[in-house]
Structure formats: structure tokens, C-alpha cells
Design a protein that fits this description.
Elements: E1 19-23, E2 29-38, E3 43-48, E4 54-58, E5 62-64
Length: about 70
């Protein structure tokens, strides 16, 4: 079976409820669950599973975990 890329091309796969790592700085990452995904703009909202905060940013700053 072929390996699946960790980040699909923008606008191809709904990301809602996916577990992700999200980039908050050049070397800083958070872990959470996507709660909203606008496929047209490529923007996502992630609920951080460690501190309960929300992060909003482009889907290109995500790495899908599950």
C-alpha cells in the first residue's frame, strides 16, 4: 500500500475532527483537533488538547497525526 502524504494538497480533504500538530512558530508546535475547516480559504481552527486554547491559521501549517 502506498504511503499517504502527511498533509494533503489544500482543498482536497476535509480536516474536521482530525488530530494534528500545528505550527505556532519557527520551532514551536501544538497538538490538537481541527474543529473548523474552510476548504475554500484553506483556514482551520484547532482546539489544543493540552491547554484548551484555540489556534486559527492556514492548513499548510498542519501535520496530520490521525
Amino acid at each position: 500500500m502506498a504511503a499517504t502524504p502527511s498533509t494533503p494538497p489544500p482543498g482536497t480533504t476535509p480536516l474536521r475532527l482530525r488530530r494534528v500538530l500545528y505550527q505556532t512558530g519557527s520551532t514551536d508546535w501544538g497538538k490538537g483537533i481541527v474543529t473548523e475547516h474552510d476548504q475554500d480559504s484553506g483556514m482551520v481552527t484547532v482546539l489544543d488538547t493540552e491547554d484548551g486554547s484555540f489556534w486559527r491559521g492556514p492548513e499548510c501549517q498542519l501535520e496530520i497525526l490521525a
